[in-house]
Amino acid sequence: MKKQLFAAAVTAGLLFTSFNATASAHEKTHNVSSGDTLYRIALNNNLSVSQIMEWNKLSTSSIYVGQTLTLLAPHTHTTTSSSTYTVKAGDTLWGISTRNGMTVDQLKSLNKLTTNTLYVGQVLKLSGTAPTTTSTSTINSLIAESKKYIGVPYVWGGSTPSGFDCSGYLNYVFAKVGVSIPRTVETIWGATKSVSAPRVGDLVFFTTYKAGPSHAGIYLGNNQFIHASSSQGVTISDMNNTYWKSRYLGARTTF
pTM of the prediction? Predict the structure, then answer.
């Protein structure tokens, strides 16, 4: 009978101890209960008394009820960002690239994508070595494509050669040379990288009918840009013109 009672008491004690210890992949602690000793805690956790004392900076073996003791050696937590992303339903290249501080073109180049089509479960690289320069031929193609539509009338919401608004024009022309950009000026601004001075093929932004980026065009060099003007349709304008110069916000690039 005594042996049975002793066994039951030991079992209860071990269960009690286990319920008072908290463990995870990063933390393991013990909350001191009445009757606990450093020796008992160390024994139950396959540690030495000196380890527990060192890790908790204890100068004596005295402990008190409610005290929380760490049962792991001092360590640090590090957070690493994922170098890949698995495509989910509803994802777009623009959304993924924006959340990860990239342009759509960078994301496509890194993953050798030739279209904007994604599929659920597709794994995309978010880091690594990718071409960082755009070939002259691509920029030349962009400029040539943009000039094809000079004279096309301005149509609010238009995104075809029968009529363009400013962002519809940009979206259409860039897509023709294999570069994907968002549909509105504001989102194009947010999805592209700032540059200190525009280069041929970069985008130049202006504030017109509302605060913030509300109009944009393609920089051609020599302070000229091509855009879909609400008064003239697709045309080439001079950035030194008083109207545009006073409304200029900055240049950004998709490349």
Answer: 0.52
CA gap 226, 217 in Å, rounded:
5
How far is 177 from 202, CA to CA, in rounded Å?
A: 14
Residue 29, both tokens = 């602690």
Digit-coded pLDDT (tens) for 69-89:
888 776 543 333 458 889 888
Domains within the chain, CATH numbers bracketed? 2-70 (3.10.350.10), 80-131 (3.10.350.10), 133-253 (3.90.1720.10)
- Show the tokens assigned to 149: 């539509």
220 vs 211: CA distance, rounded Å: 25
Residue 30: active-site member: no
Of the listed 26, 75, 77, 227, which one is catalytic? Answer: 227
Could you say which of 30, 75, 77, 166 is catalytic?
166
Conformational region of residue 192, where left means phi above 0, alpha means psi within -120 to 50, and beta covers everything else: beta
- Which residue in 30, 75, 77, 215 is the catalytic one? 215
